[in-house]
Write a structure and sequence with these properties.
Elements lengths: L4 E8 L2 E7 L7 H11 L6 E7 L5 E4 L10 E7 L15 H10 L38 H17 L7 H15 L8 H14 L13 H21 L2 H4 L37 H14 L6 H10 L1 H11 L3 H7 L6 H12 L4 H21 L2 H16 L3 H15 L8 E5 L3 H9 L3 E7 L8 E6 L2 E4 L5 H14 L9 H11 L9 H10 L2
Parallel strand pairs: 1-5, 6-7
Antiparallel strand pairs: 1-2, 3-4, 3-5, 7-8, 8-9
Helix pairs in contact: 4-6, 5-6, 8-9, 12-17, 13-14, 13-15, 14-15
Length: 525
């Protein structure tokens, strides 16, 4: 059974309340808002903020359930209807969140993450949330709940297990599937285990004595039920499923299990449906308009709205067609800008990119530096050489750059595969080197000790972003582009990107490689 978790809720300057969650925290911010509204009997619109220890216990807008912990503190911020645009998701109102980012500009040099507001143009039935850390078993239909209540009472009284009749089993499986598809349509084995564990924890009468886990049969039935439901979704045209139909398979890979395209890095909106009333033709016309809009001055808001509107159309192109970077950049030039990379990343993951990347890097820096100093041998000497620059200059951006490079070395990877510096190099030599680069960051210097004149990002031999402020910002943008373009991490930097994703950005951090797990254990010792 799950242990209860608690939150202190500040309702006003002179009023606060304790909330209890018997089965752990809800899986999403929206669910938490609903629970606060219910337990605290609130009848007005509000958003939530959490007490952030990184900023001296200041309150920040709550955008992810990962930002709160047991016995933490949240604050209710009333939002008037007049100040809130229609269809805006209250838990993540952009105006205040933008102010929070502005106040923290020392952490997020360069442009600030752009919050995405849901509008009639961009809403779709496929909007999802992160997979919850604790799966919440839903309430089933009335007669099913009645049978389970009686079964649990009998189990507590004499240990007798309930053998569900076909109708009850079908109701349970259907209810679980409907809860699952709120998050994703493709579930991995570990996630099936969390569902099975949650089911028998809430309804112990359903435990299977002949199973080691107590839910092996339920797990197998649920896998089959979800597969059948995906077939139903494919017939309805759900893009997350139709993208894997046989007619979309490349030649030579025509089996159903070959090359399944599904979220692998905690993408919440991996392949969303088009906005209501939109089609390929209408969205293509908007894309063509963007080609001229992006060239106009003081036109960022127009570009932002049209990029938001065409998000699903762009994702279908990225996931289905896997275009070459050069071709995709020609079709979507507006995407290759720091503000739009931030926005696209948040559309895909619902999480801010630049702000979280830099702030989390800073949060881990002290412990990482301690680990780097303890490392011996040749790797230890290389780490000492990189970290020496931090001792000579206390610049924040330089410190972040050193930590990223040292992280590569600590994981036994070459930082030059991530950041390549060119000092007073010949242009032909630079161009040839860039054309040979698949994924990386470049930095041009006149002299070794100088600050780089130009920092940019290279993908598939193409410069896709340039004139960035610092290497840490470039690393954040490169990470965002890996999601926006659905690119695989380069093999020579697989552990570095895994740590950035799962430890720094806290995306899908429950399954780590041995190297990443060892580092995480040492970070939290």
């Amino acid at each position: 059974m799950y242990s209860p978790t608690f939150l202190r809720v500040i309702l006003s300057d002179n009023s606060s309340q304790r909330m209890t969650f018997q089965n752990g925290f809800p899986g999403s911010v929206n669910e938490l808002v609903s629970e606060v509204q219910r337990q605290c009997a609130l009848s007005f619109n509000f958003r939530l903020q959490f007490m952030d220890a990184l900023f001296g216990n200041e309150f920040m807008n709550l955008t992810s359930m990962d930002e709160i912990q047991d016995r933490g503190t949240i604050k209710v911020i009333p939002v008037s209807d007049a100040s809130t645009p229609k269809n805006v998701d209250i838990p993540s109102t952009s105006a205040t969140q933008q102010r929070s980012h502005d106040e923290s500009s020392s952490l997020s040099s360069g442009c600030i993450d752009t919050d995405i507001l849901s509008s009639p143009e961009s809403e779709s039935s496929s909007s999802r949330s992160f997979w919850p850390s604790i799966f919440r078993v839903p309430r089933f239909c009335y007669d099913a709940e009645l049978k389970l209540e009686q079964g649990n009472a009998t189990y507590r009284e004499n240990g007798t297990l309930l053998i569900p009749d076909p109708k009850l089993k079908s109701n349970i499986l259907e209810g679980l599937v409907q809860e699952i598809v709120r998050y994703k349509v493709y579930v991995n084995d570990k996630e099936f285990n969390t569902i099975g564990d949650a089911l028998i924890s809430k309804h112990p009468c359903l435990t299977e004595r002949g199973s080691i886990t107590g839910y092996a049969g339920w797990k197998a039935s649920l896998k089959n039920k979800l597969a059948i439901y995906r077939t139903h979704l494919r017939k309805l045209g759900c893009p997350e499923v139709t993208i894997n139909s046989l007619k979309h398979k490349p030649e030579g890979k025509s089996s159903a299990a070959s090359g399944i395209k599904k979220p692998r890095r905690s993408e919440v909106n991996f392949c969303p449906s088009y906005p209501a009333g939109e089609s390929d033709k209408s969205l293509e016309s908007v894309r063509i308009e963007l080609l001229s809009d992006v060239k106009k001055k003081n036109n960022r808001e127009v570009v932002r709205r049209k990029m938001e509107k065409t998000f699903a159309y762009r994702r279908h192109e990225v996931v289905r067609d896997t275009p070459m970077i050069q071709d995709f950049q020609a079709r979507w030039p507006a995407l290759f800008d720091t503000s739009e990379i931030n926005a696209e990343f948040k559309r895909i993951t619902t999480m801010p990119l630049q702000f979280k990347f830099l702030s989390q890097l800073d949060a881990h820096s002290e412990r990482l530096i301690s680990l780097f100093k303890k490392r011996g041998g040749q790797i230890g000497k290389r780490l000492a050489s990189i970290m020496a620059a931090m001792a000579e200059d206390d610049d924040v951006d330089l410190g972040r750059e050193c930590i990223i490079k040292a992280l590569c070395v600590y994981l036994n990877e070459d930082p030059e595969n991530l950041v390549r510096e060119y000092v007073a190099a010949d242009e032909a030599l630079i161009q040839g080197s860039i054309e040979e680069t698949t994924v990386g960051i470049y930095a041009f210097k006149q002299r070794e000790a100088d600050i780089p004149d130009n920092i940019g990002i290279v993908l598939e031999g193409q410069v896709v972003l340039q004139e960035l402020d610092n290497v840490a910002l470039a690393a954040a943008m490169l990470f965002g582009l890996m999601f926006a373009l659905n690119l695989d991490y380069p093999p020579e930097l697989r552990y570095t990107f895994e740590v950035l994703q799962k430890i720094v950005m806290e995306l899908e951090g429950s399954t780590l490689s041995k190297k990443a797990q060892v580092l995480k254990n040492r970070l939290y010792q």
